[in-house]
Amino acid sequence: MPIQDVFHYQEEFVLESGATLPGFQLAYTTYGTLNPDRSNVVWVCHALTGSSDFTDWWSELFGEGKLYDPQEWFIICANALGGCYGSTGPLSKNPKTLAPYYHAFPQLTNRDIVAAFDKLRQELALERVHTLIGGSLGGQQALEWVLQQPKVFERLVHVVSNARHSPWGVAFNESQRMAIRLDPSWGTDTPEAGAEGLKTARAIAMLSYRHYNTYAATQQEPGNSITDNFRAASYQVYQGEKLAGRFNAYSYWLLSKAMDSHNIGRDRGGLKRALAHVKTRCLFVGVNTDILFPVEEQRFLHQQVPGSSFYLIHSSYGHDGFLVECEQLAEAISNFYQEETFQEELNYERQER
Fold first, then answer.
1. Does domain 3-165+264-352 bear CATH number 3.40.50.1820?
2. In the chain, N or C terminus with fewer CB closer than 10 Å?
3. Tens digit of pLDDT for each residue in 224-257?
């Protein structure tokens, strides 16, 4: 069974902005056992509102008899710094004031979040990682981490994500933050601040996570007589209330800002120059109906990273297809590994000749 644990970092942690945290903690989940040479590590980076429990939101990939069987792999995922599933975030107590941070929690970038992950990696003495996999926000962080620690990660599975967050993506996120900002409670320092605004924010987000065809297939009204109380309307309300019941507006705000900050070309001479330095073997995965991280973004990555692979998932679920179409994703990853094995065998035959 997956094991939950908490890593405590007790030194000052300097953020990209220059602000500091007086230490932090990361909640993390592990599943499986390290093999003798510690070469079977799979590290998972979660999406915006995910937790470290990858068996919850990517259950079709991880488990006995599945692609990543704990009998063969040691799998780990940490809840992102700034999150609300056990890691230090806005609702955590500031050790200096003994009161929750709330709005005083400093802004984070993906580079900060990845740097915190790497403190955990070092604590666990994981000198190399067989595969780093992440989707959406987690894909952004995974790509950033590969650039920060090029000698650690042997393979990257980068799913429905990008090299730099687009103006389109930033606009979606800002529209959601506008909803939170308009909530009268947002200006208060309370755990529930912005909760009503968060519901609207999530409803807005659903329009970017799904697709016209998704709603047409699942929310269409039967018959022709309805003039109010539509399924699609109640669905939006339901999704907002569902998220507000398990997340908080502070973390949503903070992590959406981290997503906006994503730009691997920052201080590296631009995107193309940064990607030319990627030595990790990469698989870039897109979803054909994704409007938030459109396929053009993954194709760009594939074109810029020498020797990389690309796989297109076909789905009517838009961006969320990466969580729904797990059979296709598993096939993509399996093919990725098989291509590597084939190339190694081919190179061996050439050497023998």
1. yes
2. C
3. 999 999 999 999 999 999 999 999 999 999 999 9
